[in-house]
């Protein structure tokens, strides 16, 4: 009984019901009068009367039941006209509601439903965000993932988001209500992008977002781009992963497999252990396995090779791929090797 009362209250509060209260009351009273007439005067059962009202109001008119008196025929005709009018009104209101929902969804004003795998906060540009998501969608782990973009730079959801099945929420990202609309309470990861990589004031915006996220959902993993060199402000807001402004492919890899940006920094900086080097191989042709084992004994990490005449490196060699004399062998290590002996 409680559920019926609750449902009735919800229906009464709906704006469609409030706006058309007079029409609905008139229709209900007319229906009760017509049903009573069909039972009392025409002599049909209550169930048949209900069935007749529905088929008449919807203009189906199977013909298995029909009034026999002149007044009954007049009432049926009038009820049919009223039914057509109300049906048109109902369909119009339904269409209006559906259009309104679609419009609000495109403008990012609807709450995201279900669990969220990734929230991308900030919008440095459509191309970068789109490329991040394309990289993620290319991985089986994120092929069907629920991804949400939240920012206040866009007024409408762009086509590429629809094409890549990405949700959009519009609003100030540091607002807890906006983040909750985006599903931050169920989110697994939040990637906070620097809105303007050319100015350090972008970090102030990013850290304010991170601070609110950590308060709303401390368990979520936060990845934050930084412009300034100092990391103290990011550590204060408990950011899990702090990265310098990076290409879309690197950020996508960091989302998929933590540590990708650390690996990038190690490879492409002479200040870190694990810098990449090239060794000019002058020995006899050998399978990759032999050369890789020799590199491992030198406390290095073999990455691949490029034989003479080839334009690109083979960075994932098979164990029996042959390395020819004059090849460049790429490895990660502490110093440049002069030989493999």
UniProtKB/TrEMBL annotation:
Keyword hit for Transmembrane helix: yes
Membrane-spanning segments: 21-40, 74-99
Keyword S-adenosyl-L-methionine: no
This protein's UniProt keywords: Membrane, Transmembrane, Transmembrane helix
Localization per record: Cell membrane
Residues annotated as domain RCK N-terminal: 119-223
Potassium channel domain ranges (all copies): 24-99
Primary location: membrane
GO cellular component: plasma membrane
GO BP, one annotated term: potassium ion transport
InterPro entries per the UniProt record, alphabetical: K_chnl_dom, NAD(P)-bd_dom_sf, RCK_N, Trk_Ktr_HKT_K-transport
Topology in the lipid bilayer: Multi-pass membrane protein
Descriptive protein name: Potassium channel protein
Species of the source: uncultured Thiotrichaceae bacterium
